[in-house]
UniProtKB/TrEMBL annotation:
The species this protein was found in: Micromonas pusilla (strain CCMP1545)
Record's protein name: peptidylprolyl isomerase
GO molecular function terms attached to this record: peptidyl-prolyl cis-trans isomerase activity
Annotated transmembrane regions: none
Keywords: Isomerase, Rotamase
Ranges for domain PPIase FKBP-type: 46-171
The keyword Membrane appears for this protein: no
First-level EC class: isomerase
Length: 172
C-alpha cells in the first residue's frame, strides 16, 4: 500500500462552525464550563492534570473506543478505569491533548476534533502500531480493537478522532 501512503485524494478536513479552529488544525468546543474561581491549566506551568476522557472514531462510523463513566454491561465493562495524569507538554501524550488542556478550568469538559496526521501535522496518535506507546490508551480490549483498526489500517480510511476531555483536578 506504499503507493497510497500520505495521499488525501482530495478529502479535506471538516471544519465545524461552532468549534474553535487553532493554527495547528485542532478544533475544540467547551461543552461544560468549569468553576469560575477554579484553577486553570497554564502553558509551561509545573502542573499535573488529572483528566477523564472518551473517544470516538468519527471518521469511521463514529465508533466509541473509550467511555467516561462507563456503563454497566456491554463491551466497556471490566476493570475500573483510572484517570489519566500528565504534565502539559508531556511527549508521551498525543499533541492534541497537550494543546487542548491549556486554558481549561477544573470541572470543565472540552470536546476536540483531531484531524488525521499529515507530514506537516501530527496531533493524534502515530499511525501503525506505534499508537500503542502514546497516552491516553483505551481501557478495554474492545476499545483497543476499535482504535487499532482505524490507526493500523493502511487503506484510505478517515482517521479523524473526537475526544471529550473532562478536567478533574490540577496538582500544582
Amino acid at each position: 500500500m506504499g503507493a497510497i501512503a500520505d495521499k488525501d485524494y482530495g478529502k479535506k478536513d471538516v471544519i465545524y462552525e461552532d468549534f474553535t479552529l487553532t493554527p495547528s488544525g485542532l478544533q475544540y468546543k467547551d461543552m461544560k464550563p468549569g468553576a469560575a474561581d477554579g484553577a486553570v491549566v497554564k502553558k509551561g506551568a509545573n502542573q499535573t492534570v488529572v483528566i477523564d476522557w472518551d473517544g470516538y472514531t468519527i471518521g469511521y462510523y463514529g465508533r466509541p473506543f473509550e467511555a467516561r463513566n462507563k456503563s454497566k454491561g456491554g463491551a466497556f465493562t471490566g476493570e475500573e478505569k483510572d484517570f489519566v495524569r500528565f504534565k502539559p507538554g508531556d511527549p508521551s501524550v498525543i499533541a492534541a491533548f497537550n494543546e487542548a488542556i491549556v486554558g481549561m478550568t477544573v470541572g470543565s469538559i472540552r470536546r476536540i476534533v483531531v484531524p488525521p496526521n499529515t507530514p506537516t501535522r501530527a496531533l493524534g496518535y502515530p499511525d501503525g502500531k506505534a499508537w500503542r506507546s502514546m497516552k491516553p490508551q483505551p481501557s478495554s480490549f474492545s476499545g483497543e480493537r476499535a482504535l487499532g483498526f482505524v490507526l493500523e489500517n493502511q487503506g484510505m480510511i478517515d482517521k479523524t478522532l473526537l475526544f471529550d476531555i473532562e478536567l478533574i483536578k490540577i496538582i500544582e
